[in-house]
Amino acid sequence: MLKRWLGRGNDERSMDEEMRFHLDMEERDLRSRGHSPAEARRLARVRFGGVERYKEEGREARGRVVGDAFRDVRHAIRTAGRNRSFTIAVVATLAIGIGATTAVWSLVDAVMLRPLPYPSPDRLVGIDVSWEGEPDGALSPAEYLDYRRGGDAVFSAVGAYVQGSATVAGGAGTGAQRVDAGFVAAELFRVLGTEPLVGRPFTVEEELTGETPVVLSEGYWRGEHGADPGILGTVVTLSGTPHTVVGVMPASFRLPENIGEGTHPALYLPLRIHPDTTYERGSHFLQAAGRLREGVTVARAAGAVEGITTRFSADFPDDYEPEMGFGATAVPLQAAVVGDVRPAVIVALGAVVLVLLVGAANVAALLLARGEARRGEIALRATLGARRPRLIRQLVAETLVLGILGGVLGVVLAWLAIRGLVALNPPGIPRLEDVAVNARVLWFAGGLSVLCGLVFGLVPAFRMAPDGTAAALREAGSRTTGGGRRLRQALVVGEVALALALVTGAGLLGRSMAALLAVDPGIHLDDVLATAFTVPSATHPDDASVRDFIAAATARVAALPEAEVAGAVTNLPLADGIGDLGVEIPGRVLPGDGNLNVDWQAVTPGYDRAIGLRLVAGRWVDETDRSDGSGAVVINRTFAERWWPEGNALGATIRLTADAAPAEARVIGIVEEVKHEGPGSPASLQMYLPHRQFGFWYGQGPARRMMMVVRTRAGATTAPSSVRRAFAELDPGIGLGPFITLEAAYRDVLSRPRLLAALMSSFAAIALILATIGVYGVIAYDVGRRQREFGIRVALGARSSRVAGDVVRQGATLAGAGIALGSLGALLLSGGLRSLLFGVSATDQVVLAGGAAILMAAALLASWIPARRAARMDPARALRTE
To answer: Which residues contact 418 (CB under 8 A, 6 or more apart)?
Structure first.
């Protein structure tokens, strides 16, 4: 039935077209010789002969090919069933290699290859900013406006956005709710091009005239408003200000940065950057994306952005000193979204390909060994008339069946691995929710299975299928061939070399992870709880009210039974980014424009004890550091030692720039450095300013968005609800964000290097096991083929230790050759890991020597088992077996 189905349809049509072509050509030739059309058509049919006869011959030939193919497949399945141990070994090896490769490929497909979820994503670019050698910077509002105005020739629209939060007023009997919000320029909706699910996005006019529209996400609309179709025009109070709902964006809509983070805001609010306003150029917090005009390339857009950037230093020399190294360019938005995860994904893909190659070499060695055992069978079939192509086709069919079986099992393993990865949900991997075994991944796995079956089956097939009867009989009479033995040994050498590269890479990443864990983060991680809140201007309009509320909230939380101490800070270490502020040091010659960029935090009393910040000298901020008092600042040890190496930092004066208040501050304390961005972050200059005293530039007053940090008592599981209750008692209109712990934030910071180290270690372990099996297989097979030799040697008085030593020496020689070759590969791989390492050199000799020692030990162990068998060989039995 299946054969008949395969013989219909397209094949019949192709034969009809071919017959028609030949008749037309014959008829045209006859007409050119002067025959009439009718006569030419008749003569053409006479000369060509019966069309149906040719078609029937074609059907018979095709039927023979299909029939032969089915017979080859049935024979391959029967052969696999008869040799179960061999089949299990080959299929399991292929399944591990194909499964691991498919799982990593699904990650590559989702993260790096799949188009972004916007219309015409290839025309979207991000504006990539860097300064002081650090990439992935942000834009200031003034810079964004410059790119929007100056890039009109290459961009149809340029939009900016920033992540934030908003407090949604609660209804009767419900408290306020703090939700994630995206503050976006109206043009960003044009850039991304996603149509609203309901209503419309807000317009440029609404953004600039001070109106208060809001666009909801589909998830928030369905969850909080029951997918109410009459939501448009509804008023929602956000942070004390009424906003009118004008639209709902579909669940697929993401800000570019959210694609990277795997989260998205509940609602979108106007960014409100007015083109007629002069903005401070030193405040960088915006991300920007643009849509290219038709026919404009990314390279042209990059040139336009770079041209605008070069004018900054000439037009604003005080803001763009040469030492700053400020630069910007346009990059495909896909590359901007992937960001710094790209090297890690590429390393993982390269590592898993090495695992696949090790497995494939193992399978090829197994097939070669089986080929030696089947030479008698193949020789007999050749003698009875089987032609070489026919034998090769059958042998390749056998390997294809094994490859497909390994691929099916590999897809199952890949599916399990992907489910585990998604369940772990490591932060920092963009589009992780899109990683799945989909049609694209299945095509990849199927192609890989067939490729393995073909490529790694052809070489053994050609060696197993002799050319001609004489050759067949000659090779059938031989126990083994030198060429086959050398090829198996070469495969094992390659396995060891590849395994050494992976083991070395795993060792480097493992030592790097150990170095990260050994770094003192500078804070106490256990039992520290934090939540974000914002003091709304509607209920606390003046600066004094904001300061008093935060002081009162801190005191109220610190007095809770579950709390030991509490404090507030603008940005939580390990969880939030941190900004810098320009400072001057009177009497000191500073580089560039005379400013230092210093990381800053506004803090309250108690914050130092809440996170375990260690005081080196002086004191922490306290209630005496008020807005009407003299300026005070606490700096870290790095700041003190770098700019007051003589040890007199206490009492020194620094001047805050950018119109921050107070203008001058006296150093009242020195603390240890906090690894704010994680243990791998470099040492930085840090300062802490009293919240009651510090005011933002541009006259914006004290910080309203803060993090409440609480050191809880051990086992105080009710602390979050108690903190929420304390805030509600002070102001029910203030919503708190989700509670996080410093311990969890620390784990998240280390999740990516830990995941990469775990993956590389797993791949290295698999490769090590496969290489060990490969060495064992070659040595054991060689011992089996040399039974006569070993029997004679033992009969002639050879010592068992000498026989065993010769066998082990053979394994050590193979391993030594693999280690020598693999050392070069290890150096190449370690060079690719350089950007992912911390605290360890990419050419660390200890790791390389350790990897070589592990591979040699594994090879010696694998050789020892067959060596013992050779040493205990019974001469009489060995000769009888021969």
So the answer is: 103, 106, 107, 435, 436, 437
Share of the chain above pLDDT 90, in %: 30
Using an 8 Å Cβ cutoff, are 442 and 435 in contact? no
Q: Which of 138-142, 438-442, 464-468 has the weakest average pLDDT?
A: 464-468
Question: Would you call 152 helix, strand, or coil by DSSP?
Answer: coil
| Spatial contact of 722 and 560, defined as CB atoms under 8 Å apart | yes
Q: Tell me the average pLDDT across 794-822.
A: 81
How far is the C-alpha of 250 from the C-alpha of 252, rounded, in Å? 5
Bridge partners of 182, per DSSP, are 163, 268
Residue 287: strand pairing partners: 161
CA dist 522 and 524 (Å) reads 7
At 380, list the tokens.
Answer: 């007999």
Amino acid, single-letter form, for residue 348: A
Residue 568 main-chain phi, psi, to 5 deg: -125, 150
Tracing tokens 């770098």 back to the chain, one arrives at: 642
Q: How many CB atoms lie within 10 A of CB 698?
A: 12
Residues with Cβ within 8 Å of 205's Cβ and at least 6 positions away in sequence, in order, are: none
Whole-angstrom Cα distance, residue 793 to residue 879? 11
pTM of the model: 0.78
Record the tokens describing residue 743, joined without a space. Answer: 């311990």
The phi and psi torsions of 210 (rounded to 5 degrees) equal 85, 10
What is the torsional sign of CA 354, 357, 361, 367?
A: positive
Asked if pLDDT for residue 362 goes beyond 60, the answer is yes
Cα–Cα distance, 862 to 859 (Å, whole number): 5
